[in-house]
């Protein structure tokens, strides 16, 4: 059986933070999913100056010696490689949109959600509007631009409309705290969401994968929060800087998060809502959603995170393992769906 030639699309066209974040996840994925009898991996690494590199690995030394080339040269190189599919590992807005769309033009299938869906999901207000129209409960909110005055009475949560990993997120309890929180949020985006704070019951994430065309709900991941001491999650819960200045994962253990017992009644309820979100947004292959559970047990949609790097510490990977699906099986399942949906799309266009 011929090897499947997979191109890992890594780096960022936006800034060094997203470059480091992408490399962190992609490096773990390359190590964990390498099966020489099944896959041949190549790496495309994009930097904020728009240059492309094709290093032997994601070690900093290999990246440093790889020749930087232009987009035109990169396309010429890629089209000569007989790539079977692309695994996007970029988390910046251009990486989730423009660069995925490039491979649509090159007619090379992409694992995960399409560029247009990623563009929607990267804008929290648009995502909320779409899932709300499908019947999913969302907190009342408003979209602000610089100079706008919020009208929602605190407590509220303020979020940059297009940032991830809780960058710029704040809980405002008093109207006097609005100005400072908005100023911080606008450092990360030119639009900001102000939404009603949902009292804490629980906070969970739910992953969905597609298997043989069916939506499969994965076990929930729940986060340790406290109504008084820690009512919302922060950047420090997700990432941290090491002594050498590199990004690393914050420690994942059952003190910060854990897999919810599948027999917990909230599991099925959240999975059904997550499937509604998946279908409303037009997702494919997999999806991931955050929900706030109020004290009465009602799930409220918070946001979508429609990517998976297939690193062992990726949320969907952890959920799948908890469901008895090893990482390599998850990887093969998503690859199968990618190639199958690509073949169907090509057939439908004939």
Q: Could you write a compact summary of the structure shown?
A:
By secondary structure, the protein is of the alpha+beta class. Helix content is 34%, strand content 23%.
What does this structure look like?
Mean pLDDT is 91; it is low at 344-350. The protein is globular. Strands 9, 10, 11, 14, 15 and 16 form a six-stranded antiparallel beta sheet that branches. A four-stranded mixed beta sheet has the order 3-2-1-4, with helices on one face. The longest helix is centred in the last third of the chain and has 23 residues, at 327-349. It has 350 residues and is of the alpha+beta class. The chain has helices at 16-33, 60-65, 71-79, 93-96, 98-105, 115-121, 124-133, 178-185, 265-281, 315-322, 327-349, and strands spanning 4-11, 39-46, 52-53, 85-88, 141-144, 156-160, 170-172, 192-196, 202-211, 214-217, 221-223, 239-241, 247-249, 257-259, 286-293, 299-304. The relative contact order is 0.13.
Question: Level of helix content?
Answer: 25-40%
List low-pLDDT spans: 344-350
**Which descriptor suits the 3D outline?**
globular
Radius of gyration in whole Å, from Cα? 20 Å
Q: What count of helical segments does DSSP give? A: 11
Structural class: alpha+beta
* Ends apart, CA distance between termini: 28 Å
Biggest sheet architecture = 6 strands, antiparallel
On the 0 to 100 scale, the average pLDDT is 91
Q: How do the SSEs run, as a string of H and E?
A: EHEEHHEHHHHEEEHEEEEEEEHEEHH
What is the secondary structure topology, with strand pairs?
Blueprint: E1 4-11, H1 16-33, E2 39-46, E3 52-53, H2 60-65, H3 71-79, E4 85-88, H4 93-96, H5 98-105, H6 115-121, H7 124-133, E5 141-144, E6 156-160, E7 170-172, H8 178-185, E8 192-196, E9 202-211, E10 214-217, E11 221-223, E12 239-241, E13 247-249, E14 257-259, H9 265-281, E15 286-293, E16 299-304, H10 315-322, H11 327-349
Parallel strand pairs: 1-2, 1-4
Antiparallel strand pairs: 2-3, 5-8, 6-7, 6-8, 9-10, 9-11, 9-15, 11-14, 12-13, 15-16
Helix pairs in contact: 7-9
